[in-house]
Description:
This protein is an all-alpha fold. It folds into two domains: 1-61; 72-141. 87% of the residues lie in helices and 0% in strands. The chain has helices spanning 7-46, 48-71, 78-102, 108-140. Helix 1 crosses helix 2 (48-71), helix 2 (48-71) crosses helix 4 and helix 3 packs antiparallel against helix 4. The protein is flat, with a radius of gyration of 21 Å. The two termini are 37 Å apart.
Amino acid sequence: MKKIQDERLILVNLKNIRITYVIQTVGIIGILGYDLVTKGLDGMRENPLWIVFVLSIVVSAYLSMNVSVDHENNEKSPRKGFFLSLIIVSLVSIVIGILTSLSEGFTFINGVLIGSIMFVCGLIPVIYIFYLRTKRQDSDE
């Protein structure tokens, strides 16, 4: 099998892949919606398609980050954006942790645990964006 060299054919192939992805996503959402209606929220989350759906959304978001970083202007400092994002993720995690610990039925340990999980989950994309920005900045110089 030969690699496609014609840019028009590559573009058509990418459009076909996009259409296939949309149809697949609509099908997964339809099946999960049916499970939600018939089996409830717990029944829907027990379906293995739930994991496929969440994983595909996460991968799509990370691929979109790469495109959005390439679209940014080069005047921004990656370090400044990293520290600003780090401060925002920290503040959001602290607020969520405090609100969780003040909620009825939760303890201080629950608040710390939820806040820490939120911090790690927010830190991973921040580090990835920083990596993409520094990589792009190094390639531009």
